Amino acid sequence: MSSDVFTQEIIKDALVAVGYEMFDAMIRTSMSPIIYETTDFAVGVTDARGNLLAQGNGVAAFLATLDTAVQSTLLHYPKAGDVLPGDVIITNIPYEGGGTHLSDVVILVPVFHEHRLIAWTVNKAHWTEVGGAQAGSVSTNASEIFQEGLQFPFIKLYEQGRLNEALVAVIRANVRLPESTIGDMHAGVAAARVGARRVSELVDKYGVDHVVAAMDGLLDYGERMTREELARLPAGTYEAQDVVETDGVGGGPFTIKVKVTISAQKITVDYTGSCGPAKGPINCSYTGLVTGVRCVFKAITNPEIPANGGCFRLLEIICPKGTLISAQAPAPVSLYYEPLITAMDVMWKALAPVMPERLPAGHQRAVNATFVAGIHPDTKELFVMGEPLVGGWGGASGRDGDGGQFCCANGETYNIPTELFESRYGLKVEQYAFHDEDGGAGQFRGGKGVVLDYRVTADEAFVTYASSRTQVPPWGSHGGQPGSLNGLQIIRSDGSVSHHEMCTAVRVAKGELIRLTTATGGGFGDPRQRPRELVERDLRNGYVTPEQARRDYGHVAAR
Amino acid sequence: MQIRAASDVGGTFTDLVFYDIDTGTGRCGTVRTAKVDTTPPNFEAGVMNSLAKGGVSPAEISFFAHGATVVINAITERRGVRVGLITTQGFRDVLEIARGNRPDLFNFQFHKPLPFVQRELRAEVRERTNYKGEIEQSVEQDELPGIVARFKAAGVEAIAVCFLHAYRNPANEVAVARRLRDLWPEVSVLASHQLSREWREYERTSTTVLSAYVHPIAKRYIESLESRLKAGGYRQPPYMMLSNGGIATVAMAKENPIAMVESGPSSGIYAAAHLGHLIGRRNLLVLDIGGTTAKCTLVENGEVRITTEYFVERTRRTPGYPIQTPVSEIVEIGNGGGSIAWVDAGGKLHVGPQSAGARPGPVAYGRGGTEPTTTDANLLLGRIDPKSFGGGEITPDWDAVRAAFDTLGRKLGVSGVEAARGVVRIANANMTNALRLVSTNKGYDPREFALMAFGGGGPMHAVALAEELKIPEVIVPVNSSVFSAWGMLLTDLRRDYVHTHLLPLTPENAPAALRQFRDMEAEAAANVSQDGIALGDTAMSCEHFADMRYQGQEHTVKVPVAIGAQGIDLAATIDRFHAAHQKRYTYRLPNPVQIVNFHVIARVAVPKPDLPRQQATGRKLGDTLIGRRIVDFDAHGVHDAAIYDGLRLEPGMELEGPAIVQEPMVTLVVPPGNKVSTDEFGSYHVHLRQS
After folding, report:
1. In a domain? residue B382
2. CB-based contact (8 Å) between B165 and chain A?
3. What percent of chain B has pLDDT over 90?
């Protein structure tokens, strides 16, 4: 071997850096705060066959959406010459590769060297608006995909460098905010082209054969690193199940079941036995399921290895068609992330007993997506507030869970500062604090959930909310207690209180209070094993009430 | 004769740079330097040592500027004091919830950084200001004695106060701070509005808490430095280097110590911009390679970018802690001379981010280090002169170095020398990626910039990096290993005022915008007179900027605001915004434009002599030749290279690689075909071979 091994390494690192560069390009070119602030997108590079080489992620739940989109594209365009230099493909079909819900649109750019297809650069981003029955293209009560917006079935947005004006005109005519939507579209194309240019530069500098060899090398490296980790995991078969409580239109609960088999060669994750589709929009596509499983797979192997297709060669996923988590057309999928997170959570729950060093107890397990709309009392303009909520993570071997953290499907997701929030929306935040509801006791405590109080200052406001873990709390591990629940309350002027798990456009009048509560995570280990000084510290910090200390921890106050 | 001196306390070394001024002619003498070990925890001892080593008596000094790592060290080593926090009722957990983000996406054992104040020491009071700055509820003062009693009992030494919307109207914070000082005069009290007038309550709370955490320590440090200098006969108070590229009086530094958090890197960047200005290079990529990290930034049109979105301990895997204080925009990576090379389970070679530091240091130090570092690789490849290794004070342990690379090579299936080349290549690739982050990733083309490199390792790697990024010219300042300290002798007093005030930029609002700027100028003027600055008749000057955005968008762009006799020139300002937005974000919109933050930079010039310029004495290039040695230039081959004494080069001389230009602490590597000249300030210019 010569020092050429280092050139290979440098090409590999450069391919990974392309992911970061496209990530920055997406933030730079996007006009939608949901993309550049919430980073609800992912960018990546695959080889010619759709093997994932590198990915830049804003949220965890896009992990399988880029490579599978390329793989499905190749099924739509199977022959040489079907895809040409200058083409750009667009898709948001939930039921094929790359699919989640219609708002998440995939843009694919093939990279050619002379006439040889060598790579794809891809991104998937949450567009502001793709039409459909509800503004923002998300609802908690759709019954068919057709109510959720436009579908782009792996069509060419550009043909050999020429923009498909007819398609753009159709999009423009079918969405509420055409400028934003078309802006998002151009941002996606620009980011993918930045990556394509960088890959071409690598080919110019190092030669096509070296670059292709480095791609293969990168995949093999991912596999090698992952195999090392696999050998350390406890072989065996592990099972678990759990539920999504409701589908927003009166159905539920919906059970998701898993059987995980670990050997030194691979991990098989089998969801056979999970329930059928829901009427409401809580169906999840197979791509969504793959994403979820891959996330947990990364968590239990080595999260530090850059995610690439090589890592996932050792992962097998089984799920019959047409379940809640392998949805078929025309099932509505707006809230696909709640069953996706549940699918992750059951795999996590199945393995937690045997991998305490990698997997804490159950967490709040929900995005807790909350939307409030109304007319701003000062500017008299329409405001639409949309945000996910932080909650408690589970206790872990050796450490209490974190309080106030976004769920496992999020990632580089940020809460909205109260000072920005109050200036933008007709709502006043009265508290953003940990609550002291029962739950999560353990030798290592679950992290605290939060309570958020929004006082309506607009004349009226309309709240839409979707969650799970609203009836069945996060699970404890190794003898720890379950956590608490997610939920929404509306406290009316007359003192009456209504409770909600999923709701669409519920009216709240000026001066009334919207109270959002997120779950405290499950505990880890027997609470009676928690050292007295830690219980006393929790009492001083107010993480545990005197009543909870006595009941859950057997704490007797010093006289 | 008078001496102007600056000292920069770094992690490993304390640098002193000084020159004398002939009081008769105003001419200044040669720039001299002294380097001594840093002396934690009593850093002032190292400063005094450096003066002694340089033969400078404090009594001779007319101007002394100082940059210290005391603030950043107290934070990263967790040596600050116990802090109590007081917040608006309902918001004490903001400090712990933080922003909720989890950058380490697939790690389910992720934990956010621990808050610097435990919940039991986070008190709430009933008070409220709304987003318009109107007081909805004034402070319930009765609650304060109880809080103070609790804090006293818990051993609190500093109190941080942060209320919602205090950036807009600090009245409630002012009232509480005043009452706290009455109740407990000995304690440090820091209210958020004294440190930041920007929105985002978590970031502002974190800023206030970290300021309180370091306040007593920074104050004690500055006071003991003052008294040591005074005891030595120095008659003025020293000036302290800030993170914004300016200096401040000790009074201001003691009040707002967090403003010193990145003083070292910022003075180097400021110095780079200043030197660039003198030599007509206004577009620079700046690279500072130290022992453990490499820092880079971009200077466009002579402007050092200042940001208040600064974090300590932030990586790709952890959110770190935000500090809303004006800091030069820097990308920092864990790649320096001491970075350790290692091979992972998949057979991949990595360099850094772990560093051998000063102890044990590189393998060649012979202090017990066995893991090869970038410095070791450069030594093995003949780039570093073994005779002047570590300033000539260390004889390299060659056996240990060869053994370390043979071991590394075996893991990779290559020879020891090939492994060393690989280490340099990987280190270069890491630094190239960092330079891309500040250039190509933000829409700049490196071909339009010169690369200015300094720090111990900058000149060693700069030409290879420029080649990779197609940068046409590399500039290495003379005495580049103490460049940061040198920068402090060039700076002026500077304070940045950044106020959040949402204002659509319309003709109707122009007077309000002007009023906001005038208010901030008045605050600046008041601070200057409070500081008791006596620097002759130099007046304060102000520059005006605004962080602006399109209505409906989030991200802002900082642009200079044109203020003329008629007030704010709206059309010119909005045009600048459109252009800057297009550059940064690739598009412009027809939307109305809004100001988010008003930014005033107030400067008071420090009188100082011009930098001395070198004259050619007619010395021949051959006279500067120290000798020749075999140097491995990796892809450019192994050559018998000429070694030049950099300090003897003169303007007008030109040399060509393969060559090495050396100073006692500096090695400039010049691969074959690249030409080097020097300018009248002694800096080296490498003109890259056009490929």
Report:
1. no
2. yes
3. 73
Assess whether B667 and B541 both reside in one domain.
no
Window 103-132 of B, Cβ < 8 Å to A: 103-112, 118-120, 130-132
Q: Which residues of B touch A410 (CB under 8 A)?
A: 102
pTM: 0.93
How are beta strands B567-568 and B654-656 bridged, if at all? unpaired
A166, containing H or E segment: helix A165-174
- Looking at the complex, does the CB of residue B92 fall below 8 Å from at least one CB of chain A? yes
Q: In angstroms, what is the C-alpha Rg of chain A?
A: 24
Q: Select from B119, B202, B440 the Cβ nearest to the Cβ of A542.
A: B119
Identify whether residues B124 and B41 lie together within a single domain.
no
Quick check: is B298 in a domain? no
Clarify whether residues B179 and B98 are in a common domain. yes
Distance of alpha carbon A417 from alpha carbon A435, whole angstroms: 19
Angle, nearest 10°, between helix axes A165-174 and A178-206? 140
Whether B96 and B166 map to the same domain: the answer is yes
Regarding whether B209 and B102 lie in a shared domain, the answer is yes
Handedness of CA A397, A399, A402, A403 (dihedral sign): positive
Cα gap A214→A337, rounded to integer Å:
35
Q: What is the CA radius of gyration of chain B?
A: 26
Which of B181, B215, B249 lies at the terminal end of a domain, its last residue?
B215
Q: B117 and B186: one domain?
A: yes
Give the mean model confidence (pLDDT) for residues A285-298: 95
- Identify the domain boundary among B164, B181, B215: B215
* DSSP three-state, residue B511: helix
Give pLDDT tens digits for A27-52.
877 777 777 777 789 999 999 999 99
Total domains in chain B come to 4
Specify which residues A451 forms β-bridges with.
A433, A517
- Give all strands of the β-sheet with B122-125 in edge-to-edge order: B122-125, B83-88, B158-162, B188-191
What's the pLDDT score for residue B532? Answer: 67
Read off the pLDDT band of B470 (50, 70, 90).
Answer: very high
CB contact under 8 A, B201 and A17: no
Residue A1 pLDDT? 33
Taking residues A398-409, what's their average pLDDT?
Answer: 96
The mean pLDDT value for B16-42 works out to 85
User: Does B488 fall in a domain?
Assistant: no
Q: In the predicted model, what is the mean pLDDT of chain A?
A: 93
pLDDT grade for A382, boundaries at 50, 70 and 90: confident
Q: Is B42 within a domain?
A: yes
Q: Could you give the CA distance from residue B213 to residue B520 in angstroms, rounded to a whole number?
A: 27
Same domain, residue pair B87 and B48: no
Q: Which domain holds residue B45?
A: 2-75+219-235
Report the complex ipTM: 0.94
Which tens digits make up the pLDDT trace of B379-392?
A: 999 999 998 887 77
Residue B363 scores a pLDDT above 50: yes
